[in-house]
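User: Watch each token:
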Amino acid sequence: MARPRLIDDDTILDATRVVLAELGPVKLTLAAVGARVGLAAPTLIQRFGSKRGLLLASAARSPLMVIRAAEQAEAHNTSPLAALRDFALSSVAHIERREQLGNGLGFVQLDVADPEFRAHAVAHSAAIVDTAARLLRAAQDAGELAPEADVDALARLILVCFNGAFQVWAVNGWGTLTDFVRDQLDLVLTPYLTGTRR
């Protein structure tokens, strides 16, 4: 009979995310991830096959992480726009140094060069756009967002704003990342808010 897993895959993948921020995908090792959760590298190989397999599992999980973040944001806010803001900021709350974000952006090289990673990156982007569009439509229904706003185009613009803010802050480090992303998001949304929300 197989031994029960005392440490589940989500815990390992959470640790992978932390190590990615610290080391980037090139310097990340199975031993470094294993040390975070108290597992030996061979155990991770049994579960994920290789370092590549672990990174692919982390990438495959990213759309689900988007959905979970949105659910948490909506649970804590009655305003769809406030939920959208919290959703956008939740993924950067743990980043304090430019080096952490730069290491995470190293994953973009894999997304561009490797078709398997790219498929997960596209799914991650789609999850962000779909979530943003849903919250923007709810904001229109709640009277927070102008009814004439093109929600689908605005949701894509939010993705562009979000990813662009990451790269700009990684180089310049203007203030905290949370404040910087919030400011850019507000600049994107403000022209589309109703008078009472501006």
The CA atoms of residues 84 and 135 lie 6 Å apart.
